[in-house]
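Handoff note, outgoing to incoming analyst
You'll be picking up this chain. Sequence as last confirmed:
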Amino acid sequence: MQKGMKIGAVIQARVGSSRFPRKVFADICGRPLLGHILDRLKRCTTLDRIVIATSTQPGDAELLDFAKAEGVESFAGDENDVQKRYIDAAQKFGLDIVVRICGDSPFIDPKMTDRLVTELVAANADYAEPDPEIPGAYEGAEAVTLAALLRARELGDNGPDREHVTWYIRRHEAEFKVIHPKPDPATHGKWRLSIDTRADLDFVRSVFGTLYKPGDVFDAAALAALLREQPVLALLNAHVRQKPADLTSPHVGLYVETDHDISAAVSLARRLNEWHHCGVRFLGPFDESKRVSFAAMGYGAQRLASLADEAALAGAIEHGRLAAIVAPARVLERATRHDWPLPMLSTLATPEQIASAARSH
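Most recent structure output, in case you need it:
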């Protein structure tokens, strides 16, 4: 490393993920997802600091407490302008190089993370990521100088460039010095490795159940070897579609009254979540045990006795930031209200129609 240069890993993490709330605390072999990421970063030799960067939303304060308990730094910044959050965190901790870590990537590889930093410094480059033309068992890490982030902020727009920290750099590589370290041949392969949906969590738990040993971390080569030996594991989440960077994730409320409604709605929720990139929140006159069950499946839930209660419905829409609500046809048929404040669809609508209506609202 260049003398006096400070390097830090900054993990972007929030409790209120659109598609999978509280996924950063999802249990994987007795340890939360975010804990596994920290275990891996602590194996790196190039990092001076590890920072969990969350938002100033009250619900994310839990992450500040978690960071303290884990012995790492924390920072609370802008919820939606993630690029600004990174820049502010880097400036607060005096970082010259930021290793951006996604809080939904349980397979962060310490060896590749160190390579990104050392090769970035050796080449005097602005940005480094594993070669995107050679798929491998790597996900969720990239290295960038603070100077490059500041320049990208000046040149970028107020859309995806703000939400996706290095989006401008990756789309305008000619304006920066970018390097792409080649992955180790032992890690080659194309798999879905991040956690955005329940299917992704099922996949990750299956992998950790085979490879994980408390107090140790398995590397990308071991991960790739397992997935080549047992390709059936990758089928657990192979159907999940990757969300384009410039696509929004609207929140859809699913209103349920009976156990039969719930069974059908859970199937719809997974389809909306895994294929159409929608967040899902269950609504209905259910008890606390049902709410806990929904939470265990990765979905938010809120008791709502009836869609006819205008005040309660307005509160549910605001609290869940809902862009559309889906309810059984019989519920909508008996409703006397027709001036709904957002798209109100029947469960007879297709997932495509529901997602389209939510994005159009």
